[in-house]
Design a protein that fits this description.
By secondary structure, the protein is of the alpha/beta class. The chain is 50% helix and 9% strand. It contains 14 helices and 7 strands. 45% of the residues are buried. The protein has a single domain, classed as TIM Barrel, CATH 3.20.20.370. Helix 3 runs parallel beside helix 5, helix 3 runs parallel beside helix 11 and helix 4 crosses helix 5. The N terminus and C terminus are likely disordered. The protein is globular and about 50 Å long. The strands form 2 sheets. Strands 1, 2, 3, 6 and 7 form a 5-stranded parallel sheet that branches. A two-stranded parallel ribbon has the order 4-5.
Length: 341
């Protein structure tokens, strides 16, 4: 939350100015050609995000299979060409047979996989060389599975959306990933699902059915509020609504609510597209120059275009979610930048 206030303060003291005419024309043409709002779904932390800081074990294998089965069935039912982002270390922890089987299920027509680094590190805390090794090691299982269909991973997403805390590191890592054929995968909606999932896991462990139902209802309401907030943010900054890139995590909570989450978009008239289709919008050609922090792309576009945004108005999860986590043994809110993971 402190990061949001930092960006709010920065943007509020920047004078708004008109966008470059050529860029504005490109964006207007894109908006005019659209048949309605668009969204690409992405899922981080494959093969499983347990909602705990503890490493995965082979005991998580059955749950991981069930979570991915529910997600992929929903995506297939609604014709959503989702992209999953993989942490290779989680494949090793959960067991190669289960991990590779989960990845193979994702490599079906309409689904894709990307690199989320080997061990889900904060790149801002690594040397350039260590970050490069994380990228390389993160490819192992993805590349092997995708090679069966003569494909290779095309997209890379950094944990916490951190891309290097200095310009030197940022630019070196960007050049390295581009040389390996990767394109950076942005995200435009933060619905704090990782924090809700932490509370959800604890309620599951306790058999707390009343709280489970309350978390699901609150999470879905908050996701709707976040969608509306970021839609308004992007429209204010760009003058139109670009395709959203939705960030979810590979959790039990999202498996249990995926149909309702999809409904939030369909009820608002969204059509589902691939990550690659979303990235064809001119907004995503904006240079990615944020170094230290990792806000959603609407804030990045605002900074690049010198548009003043009051980030303090962004919705926040209710405090009782964090109280439930704290009171059940897991401390307070997410460690870094709320839940941008």
């Amino acid at each position: 939350m402190l990061i949001r206030w930092f960006f709010a303060a920065v943007f509020l003291i920047i004078l708004a100015k008109a966008a470059d005419p050529a860029s504005a024309k490109d964006m207007t043409d894109m908006a005019a050609s659209s048949t309605g709002p668009l969204v690409a779904f992405t899922v981080d932390d494959l093969p499983f995000a347990s909602g705990s800081a503890m490493p995965l074990t082979k005991d998580d294998a059955a749950t991981a299979r069930g979570v991915n089965r529910q997600l992929l069935q929903a995506f297939a039912r609604h014709k959503i060409p989702a992209t999953g982002f993989v942490n290779e270390q989680r494949i090793e922890q959960i067991g190669q047979p289960t991990g590779l089987a989960i990845l193979a299920a994702w490599i079906k027509p309409g689904f894709d996989l990307g690199n989320h680094l080997y061990s889900h590190p904060d790149v801002n805390m690594l040397t350039i060389e260590s970050a490069e090794m994380e990228i390389i090691r993160g490819e192992a299982s993805i590349a092997a599975v995708m090679a069966r269909g003569s494909r290779r991973p095309e997209y890379l997403r950094f944990p916490f959306s951190h891309t290097g805390e200095t310009k030197e590191k940022h630019d070196a890592i960007a050049a390295f990933m581009a040389a390996r054929g990767y394109r950076l995968a942005p995200c435009t909606i933060d619905n704090s699902d990782y924090d809700f999932a932490r509370a959800y896991r604890l309620a599951l462990d306790r058999g707390d059915r009343a709280t489970l139902a309350k978390i699901r209802a609150t999470y879905l309401a908050f996701t709707g509020s976040a969608l509306d907030w970021y839609t308004g943010l992007n429209s204010r900054v760009l003058g139109y609504e670009p395709p959203h890139i939705m960030l979810l995590h590979d959790s039990v909570l999202n498996a249990d609510t995926i149909e309702a989450t999809i409904a939030l978009f369909t009820q608002r008239g969204y059509r589902f597209i691939s990550l690659g289709q979303a990235l064809s919008d001119p907004a995503y050609a904006t240079p990615e120059t944020i170094t230290k922090y990792g806000p959603m792309w609407g804030y990045r576009w605002a900074r690049e275009r010198h548009v003043a945004i009051d980030g303090s108005a962004e919705p926040e999860p209710p405090g009782w979610i964090y109280d439930y986590i704290k009171n059940n043994g897991e401390g307070g809110p997410g460690i870094v930048e709320h839940s941008i993971r």
